[in-house]
Amino acid sequence: MHNFQALFDYVQKLSGETLSADDRQVFITHFKPKKIRKRQYFLQEGDVCKYTGFIVKGAAKTFTVDEKGHEHILKLSIENWWLADFESFYKLTPSRFNIEALEDLEILQITHSLVEEFIRPIPAFSAMQNVLSQNNTIAAQKRMQSSISQTGEERFQELVNDYPHFIQRFPQNLIASYLGLTPETLSRIRKNALK
Amino acid sequence: MHNFQALFDYVQKLSGETLSADDRQVFITHFKPKKIRKRQYFLQEGDVCKYTGFIVKGAAKTFTVDEKGHEHILKLSIENWWLADFESFYKLTPSRFNIEALEDLEILQITHSLVEEFIRPIPAFSAMQNVLSQNNTIAAQKRMQSSISQTGEERFQELVNDYPHFIQRFPQNLIASYLGLTPETLSRIRKNALK
DNA sequence: AAATACGCTTGATAAAAGTCAATCTATTTT
DNA sequence: AAAATAGATTGACTTTTATCAAGCGTATTT
């Protein structure tokens, strides 16, 4: 039996509400456990993102590949995050992004229509969605603010302060890409910062 | 009597639902019309953003000022947008942003607690919030993607394509700041693009 | 009408970041 | 164990963008 406890804990924590036994059963009925091995894709550019997945274990990157073949990482996702290209997921349009497992992934996945029909009616879940939406708005605003007004070095320092576990968990070339820098530039930034 | 029609139209359009006469009365009771003259502040750094305002007429910029005294514009807002620093508005913490009228503003403003108590229970409104939240997530993702993977010139071209009315309505130095560029750099980018 | 602000442009120079190539180390994979 | 791969670093050089300063029109203000 797959581990739904992480999902229950997460929903309850963010919503501040309790899930009844019946609620839990609805989750268990509609979310499907799935494993994705390292280097496998959860989503490929051009495909429709039919599922969103709650990460129970593992990590993934969401990225594009430009004309020169360079990767640009938009998101790094770990346990207790939702995996999806939400534009494609909401609108059922082909995605511009790839999502690839960086470590073996265990997720609980579900389609948009099943969420709408069965999961969103659960009050704790929609309360969680509201909190999550607020958190995401705030985080997106902060990241955008950094991006337009700070140097690479300042953005890196902010990441070290705000998400130190990301620095430990992911190799530097991925962190660099997430910050909009090349690996060489981040390497030099770190060298200079050591003074 | 202030123009609530723009707000009603907006809520109905985004939600796909109809507002009853009673619903409308709830809006009229709790939203307060306010005028803010050009160059006046809706919000100042360090203050708590107690209100969100629906823009009926006019335009505003949301920006920070860095240690060197340079402005960085995070958002440019016009009719049918909501004005606020949502981090400060949701959490009632002091804001890091300033919001200033670029043109005389007519807004309909309301506090967070009044929204929660009286407005959000209106189904069309909460449906609108859901759609808005999705749209914002998608737009934020797209802008972030541009920021980490494109040059200034490409970001400018994208803005011209996606929001041509912004280019017409705001001076170039504000557009430059919104794109994370100096006015000089944007001026040169445009000169080169004319070839 | 004169004075002032503002916005845009251009030039010269500096700083930040990217590109390409080489090397080194530490894992993985075979 | 050997081979292959992945990640990090460094050097030389280029491109992109910022900075500072000046000049020029056009609104606004007085």
Automatic annotation (TrEMBL), chains A, B:
InterPro entries in the record: cNMP-bd_dom, cNMP-bd_dom_sf, RmlC-like_jellyroll
Domain Cyclic nucleotide-binding: 34-119
Pfam families: cNMP_binding (PF00027)
CDD domains hit by this protein: CAP_ED
Record's protein name: CRP-like cAMP-binding protein
Organism: Pedobacter metabolipauper
